[in-house]
């Protein structure tokens, strides 16, 4: 044995440190190209390069604690830890087959054999036994190896259901046991076996719940296996003939799914299910038609806005900006305070975003408003006694405004008042009491409910419609009393 001073590697040149290693005479040193750690290669190795067993098995004298692994065919060498981390990363991103780590630097096209991955990730038998709980039966363990397991390590669906009460409870119990008593490398090894089976056999499809491979036969193979006895595990599953109307059932977790669409669609074929997904829903099409007919787009964000009632001052629920609903734009609005004026339609509005401040000002002005309210009560009471509750504004507060020859406006009585006049003053004390009380209290309540300006009082609303040429047409509620059903995701309530 001779003592030699060697640098730690090209990545550690800045540290100016050296390590004293005892290197046997006639041996050569190697550096892992990933972590730049040193190890030596023995000249008397008898490693089987076809299966990728670790080097140094003949002498067991390693200069470094890490083992050296050589990949067959390309003969690139890496330490055990780096190569294992490379395999775990490839499995985590589901990149199968696992490629040589030297592909990026040396354009290597070789892949790692399964035996090498097993040597890196799979634990020994004595380690497996130490991980298992003492009260766990050997029959409860499950493995994902490609070889057919023994009959003692399998559980049928019936036995699992009888033990745990349901197949879902059995699947969750087995999943918890595998996570609690299995190392991280073993979990990656089991995941590699599952991905490798899916990569090698194109007839396998993963379960959408437990990701276990399920074999789906073609129609001809299914007819041949129609009388096959039911198996007890997915790894040797041979499903009977299944029509396109029947979903696939995983025997590991009992989950039913479709191998094409994922979601099970019992009673429908894949073509019928696809047509149902593509075909628009009737309610959605009706909602879109109503939106185009009764809504106006926001002049800021183009969101459709539906006005049910109130003034024409609209606050968009999407962007919180205001606009004039009658004009359909915000370009003619001016005023930065609570009062907004539309120069096109000559209307004044109270900005509903400041409605709280406006009501606070009304409460502060209540002492000044109280004398006028008392005067209002006296006048309304006198008019109610004189008209016996038949004056239109005292009956219901509604005045119908009609156009005569499209030029002159005329105020007419509402239908209840006309009915009373036709019934020769058929007046009831209950109606008169309701009329007087409504006219005494409704204006005071309406002052707080509405903006307090005459243009903002509740009137007969108009809904915008679009003709075939795209022009806006207004229709009153009396002509269009059908309340549309709108989609809440596309239209929100507006303050008016």
Automatic annotation (TrEMBL):
<dbReference type="InterPro" id="IPR017907">
    <property type="entry name" value="Znf_RING_CS"/>
</dbReference>
<dbReference type="GO" id="GO:0097039">
    <property type="term" value="P:protein linear polyubiquitination"/>
</dbReference>
<keyword id="KW-0472">Membrane</keyword>
<protein>
    <submittedName>
        <fullName>IBR/half ring-finger domain containing protein</fullName>
    </submittedName>
</protein>
<keyword id="KW-0479">Metal-binding</keyword>
<feature type="transmembrane region" description="Helical">
    <location>
        <begin position="378"/>
        <end position="398"/>
    </location>
</feature>
<keyword id="KW-0833">Ubl conjugation pathway</keyword>
<dbReference type="GO" id="GO:0043161">
    <property type="term" value="P:proteasome-mediated ubiquitin-dependent protein catabolic process"/>
</dbReference>
<keyword id="KW-0862">Zinc</keyword>
<dbReference type="InterPro" id="IPR044066">
    <property type="entry name" value="TRIAD_supradom"/>
</dbReference>
<dbReference type="GO" id="GO:0004842">
    <property type="term" value="F:ubiquitin-protein transferase activity"/>
</dbReference>
<dbReference type="GO" id="GO:0008270">
    <property type="term" value="F:zinc ion binding"/>
</dbReference>
<dbReference type="InterPro" id="IPR051628">
    <property type="entry name" value="LUBAC_E3_Ligases"/>
</dbReference>
<keyword id="KW-0812">Transmembrane</keyword>
<keyword id="KW-0677">Repeat</keyword>
<feature type="domain" description="RING-type">
    <location>
        <begin position="28"/>
        <end position="355"/>
    </location>
</feature>
<keyword id="KW-0808">Transferase</keyword>
<feature type="compositionally biased region" description="Polar residues">
    <location>
        <begin position="148"/>
        <end position="157"/>
    </location>
</feature>
<dbReference type="GO" id="GO:0000151">
    <property type="term" value="C:ubiquitin ligase complex"/>
</dbReference>
<keyword id="KW-0863">Zinc-finger</keyword>
<feature type="region of interest" description="Disordered">
    <location>
        <begin position="127"/>
        <end position="157"/>
    </location>
</feature>
<keyword id="KW-1133">Transmembrane helix</keyword>
<dbReference type="GO" id="GO:0043130">
    <property type="term" value="F:ubiquitin binding"/>
</dbReference>
<comment type="pathway">
    <text>Protein modification; protein ubiquitination.</text>
</comment>
